[in-house]
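Q: What would this chain look like folded?
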Amino acid sequence: MSARTDARFRGGAGRALRGLKVWLGLAALALPLGALAQIRGDADEGSASIELRVAACIACHGRTGAATGGGYFPRLAGKPAGYLFDQLRSFRDGRRFHSDMAYLVRHLSDDYLREMAEYFAALELPYLPPVAARDLSGEQLARGRQLALEGDVQRRIPACIECHGAALTGVLPAIPGLLGLPRVYLSSQLGAWLNHERHALGPDCMAQVGQRLTSADVNAVAGWLALQPVPAGAAARAAARLPHPLPISCGGMETDR
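A: My prediction, written as structure tokens:
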């Protein structure tokens, strides 16, 4: 990750986290104590509606989980439920590190997290148009396109489309789409795998891929992906299956689809 991208990430994430703290403070005034405790995961899991359970999520991820293209936090709406569930468990169980996320889900059961994941996965909301990347050269974008569509055979880097689908919109049940996400989010997550800061259930295939990327690769592929428009209508949904086995073994994934 470039120093400039890293600085943008820290600044954007910092503003978002400050916003989350303000929101939680306002929520404490606006909601009954029992409701606020439910959002924090301290109350009986069966006592609140799904809308109340996900209320804290919109503070960072945008109302109904459809984040704007310029922010740090990713869109939740329409992502595969299996992927969202895995990420919530990873925050709870320490494979992913974010203090506010860990705080919000630390006492929640698998069933509770699965219901939250299914709520966001079922939402069908429009995507915003991509934001221009004026700081990337044509050469950088060409490199990003190569990594996304062709990979790098010599360095054993599979193309993004080999796992995330030909349209890069994800694959059921648990492979996320890569389109419609903020560039700073994409680069920061790839950088987290490169720097051993993000983990998944073993075998951790993205850790293997991420650690084969350079900072220049991360900047290039994140920039190219963020510029791609999301297909309209049903074409934006995750594919039902891959037409071929996964190129690398991934925890929780079948490689013989």
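The chain has two domains: 3-121, 138-236.
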